[in-house]
């Protein structure tokens, strides 16, 4: 789990292309969740 945390914090430091490919979907999924939460908060306000 610690290795995954490091990958998320420092995506540009990976030596393997696979790590970069794995990083992108996680980031977009996280961004989508943030957008959904922001929309819910906007509805509540």
Number of helices: 2
H/E series, N to C?
HH
What average pLDDT do the residues reach?
A: 69
Return the structural class: mainly alpha
* Cα radius of gyration in angstroms: 14 Å
Percentage of residues in strands? under 5%
Total individual domains = 1
Low-confidence stretches: none
Distance between the termini: 36 Å
Which percent bin holds the helix content? over 70%
Q: Can you count the beta strands?
A: 0
- The biggest beta sheet, please? none
Specify the overall morphology: rod-shaped
Structure summary:
This protein is mostly helical and 45 residues long. The chain has helices at 2-9, 17-44.
Which helices and strands appear, and what pairs or packs with what?
Layout: H1 2-9, H2 17-44
What does this protein structure show overall?
- With 45 residues, this protein is mostly helical.
- The chain has one domain (2-44).
- Helix content is 80%, strand content 0%.
- The chain has two helices and no strands.
- The protein is rod-shaped, with a radius of gyration of 14 Å.
What key phrases describe this protein's structure?
0% strand; 45 residues; 2 helices; mainly alpha; single chain
